[in-house]
Specification:
Largest sheet: 7 strands, mixed
Number of strands: 11
Strand content: over 45%
Structural class: mainly beta
Number of helices: 0
Shape: globular
Helix content: under 10%
Radius of gyration: 13 Å
Distance between the termini: 40 Å
């Protein structure tokens, strides 16, 4: 049974940084691409960042490019999202997700991900 558990969210001020973690269990973490998505109140879930199974390829939404960094530590079965220069518009629940198929590439479409965490709240005050 695949389980993803996010942590690291919180309340910060604009300009601050946070690092989200996604601890995975239930299968070989290093074989699967993962992504981060977010959902703000009243809005649809949107893509934030994705990383290939090897970590060799990364993708970012234009809104976070240059501020956020996605990474993974396959030895620790954990993915990360480093968020710098946070803005109030980054306020949302952040979810990590993992693709179903072994060695599939990173994807920006949420429908390509089959496993999801419960989410962690990030609130950025102005």
């Amino acid at each position: 049974q695949v389980q993803l558990v996010e942590s690291g969210g919180g309340l910060v001020q604009a300009g601050d940084s946070l690092r989200l973690s996604c601890a995975a269990s239930g299968r070989t973490f290093s074989s699967y691409a993962m992504g981060w998505f977010r959902q703000a109140p009243g809005k649809e879930r949107e893509f934030v960042a994705a990383i290939s199974w090897s970590g060799g390829s990364t993708y970012y939404a234009d809104s976070v490019k240059g501020r956020f960094t996605i990474s993974r530590d396959n030895a620790k079965n954990t993915g990360y999202l480093q968020m710098n220069s946070l803005k109030p518009e980054d306020t949302a629940v952040y979810y990590c997700a993992q693709r179903r198929s072994t060695l599939a590439g990173a994807a920006t479409d949420a429908t390509e991900y089959n496993y999801w965490g419960q989410g962690t709240q990030v609130t950025v005050s102005s």
